[in-house]
Amino acid sequence: MSNPQPLKVGITGGIGSGKTTVARIFNILGVPIYYADDRAKWLMGNDPKLKEEIIAAFGKESFLENGELNRTYLAKEVFSDEKKTKKINGLVHPAVGRDFFDWFAKQDSPYILKEAALLFETGSYQQLDKIINVSAPLKIRISRVLMRDPHRTEKQVNDIIDKQLPDEEKNSKADYVVKNAENKLLIPQVLSIHKSLLDLASGQSEG
């Protein structure tokens, strides 16, 4: 009898929530993780089909002479124009979706994690079995980002937060919530979710 497919679990959280830190704890527990936001950056510079689509939509200036993505040009083009933001997302998200399923087909584990900032906003959460949202108070999130990215201003961080779904909404849509505040220990929360997902996966394989 062939092994059942791993459960597909999404892990998300707004900027500064600490979702990458939480994902790393799962990784230490042996859970394979697909980092969607990192792969998106990689695919924009390396996936031939996506590169062609970006050039068709935003012009040859989208890439430097050495073939690398011209991030400065694209950021200027896209960031303040909602139509263009939607356009580039409409190219990048399907490419990430294809790449994720190629990666997923090679995994052999009770469950895997797909880490992405915009799981709910892009609708890609619908392709997953369970969702974990990493939640943190707004003040803490802003101070974390300003410490991590000293080049950003508070206004820029707030602009990014405004483009993401509010925490309360993400928490209500998620199957599990990790509270990443100063008075909450992360590891016990992660271990509890890990056990729950392993139980779920073993129940699925017995079913």
From TrEMBL:
Q: What pathway is this protein a component of?
A: Cofactor biosynthesis; coenzyme A biosynthesis; CoA from (R)-pantothenate: step 5/5
What GO molecular function annotations does the UniProt record carry, in alphabetical order?
ATP binding; dephospho-CoA kinase activity
* Source superkingdom: Bacteria
Catalysed reaction, written as an equation: 3'-dephospho-CoA + ATP = ADP + CoA + H(+)
Keywords from UniProt, A to Z, are: ATP-binding, Coenzyme A biosynthesis, Cytoplasm, Kinase, Nucleotide-binding, Transferase
Regarding protein family, the annotation reads: Belongs to the CoaE family.
> According to its UniProt record, where is this protein mainly located?
cytoplasm
Q: Where does ATP bind?
A: 16-21
Q: Name one GO biological process term.
A: coenzyme A biosynthetic process
Matching InterPro entries: Depp_CoAkinase
Compartment(s): Cytoplasm
Q: What is its EC number?
A: 2.7.1.24
Name of the protein in question: Dephospho-CoA kinase
List the NCBIfam families. Answer: dephospho-CoA kinase
